[in-house]
Amino acid sequence: MAAMPSIKSREVKIVHDIPISRTLKFWEGLKEGKILATKCKKCGKLYFPPSADCAACLSSDMEWVELSNEATIETFTHVVVRPTTFQQEKPYTVAIGRLKEGVRVLAWLTGFKLSEVKVGMKAKLVAKTTTDGRLTYEFTRPE
Amino acid sequence: MNKVAIIGVGCSKFGVRNDVNVAELTFEAFKPSIEDAGITPKDIEFVAVGSTGAGAWYEELLPAVVSAEYCGLTGAGLARCEAACASGSAAFSMAYWAVASGQVKIAAALGVEKMREIDTPTMMEWIGRAGYYLWEFHNFGLTFPGYYALYASAHMAKYGTTEEDLALVAVKNHKYASMNPIAHFRNRITVDDALSSMIIAAPLKLYDCCPVTDGAASIILASEEKVKELKIDTPVWVAGLGYASGTANMSKRLDYVGLEASVSASQMAYKMANVSPDQLDVAVVHDCFTIAEIMAYEDIGLCKKGEGGKLIREGQTEIGGKIPVNIDGGLKAKGHPIGTTGCAMIYELTKQLREEAVERSRQAPMKNYIALAHNVGGTGHYCYVTILRR
């Protein structure tokens, strides 16, 4: 079938400057190899991803706490068909792991063959700086 | 709250609709809906438009004003509703409340989405961002098939649901889409076709995923007084409406074997309508991915938790089974124009309840004349459940 007649819209390039001033310690912690969460000083609720305000009691009096590295994988997927900005990456595995503190983390899972990945297995959560300087964290094989 | 009836419905052809722009596509659904109701655009006092991709996958930022002007609706109260893939249901709810409150006598809910004006990786990018961009997309590039694959892996691990069970959902929905002239896909498939299709986000394969579809739907709602005045012969009444939401972060959900928002929204709708799941004659559920249909069976009470796989294996959700589900082809094969879907579900159920399904082969037998629509937004971020009764 012949393409339907159309006109091209004007091209825009979109890049957002996402403020991180209120969670800056988290991003700085990643550079030092630490995974930090926030904890509400008023009600004790622990937040990961870190939150500068408490959704449970609406207090903004939060403290930073370092999380353990021990995770249990609750579920996972292996993403083959990738979005535009991930076209340069090889297919990747994304998992959700529960840390012993009770919070869950969603991140890439590396260092395993896909056939080895199982719900309920143990993984280690580590901070990482990518080769292009992006700060992130991932699950990997426990020592 | 006053009684509210559906008095007119319209739906465009679903598919790759590069022959029309967003306003023209809306018109294609809107015109038959007002002809069905026997009214003119000037009779409509309030219009709610469900659409998600404004400015992202199609060029217009304000589709409500563009479509309303094009359909002769300028002057009516107007808003666009966003509840991700449940935007159509959010629009339907807003129109319902406008009439139920007594403030207006006639309202319209329009759903419209134009998804095929951009390339597929960019579409994967936009939809992947539709969760919590900062924490789950920016570093991790989760796609929508990926999010639902997280549910599939967990459901399989906990309940022994298999890839074949998922394939059966696709086979069923393609079968009914083949009987539905407005469906995006008209081809029947086999379990082997589904199982041998390419991996998109493991364990989900191509045939586990709904297509990227253009389409529009239009629903006209009216008060009881207007139903009498217009001499509507088969009004379909809104008997129940339930709604709920889930966390933006997938990592904060209670578990990955069901959607909490679906459970809460369906219980709210059953309570308002004073009906139980076993009284339903037909249902449409949110099957953006095959696993989503299996979880929906469980979450809205068509079977017990963990028995969704068994329900599809036994053929209980086919016509002739316990409860026919997605016999319009579902999102899976009829197509899922994101902001349209909620209105397209109401279109289908209204046709079913009036016993005027387009082809007799896919008319559900009616006993109680009660139908349910279950529409999820995002990965369980939003849920709307609507119960209709003739």
Describe this structure as you would to a colleague.
The complex is a heterodimer of chains A (143) and B (390). Chain A has 2 domains: 19-67, no CATH class; 68-143, OB fold (Dihydrolipoamide Acetyltransferase, E2P). Chain A contains 1 helix and 8 strands, in the order αββββββββ. Chain A has one helix at 24-31; strands at 36-40, 46-47, 62-66, 70-79, 92-99, 104-109, 122-129, 135-140. In chain A, a hairpin with a 4-residue loop joins strand 5 and strand 6 (104-109). In chain B, the strands form 2 sheets. A 9-stranded mixed beta sheet of chain B has the order 3-2-4-7-1-8-11-10-9, sandwiched between helices. In chain B, strands 5-6 form a two-stranded antiparallel sheet. In chain B, helix 2 (63-70) links the parallel strand 2 and strand 3 (77-81). In chain B, helix 1 crosses helix 2 (63-70), helix 3 (87-100) packs across helix 14 (341-353) and helix 7 crosses helix 11. The interface between A and B is large, with 38 and 42 residues.
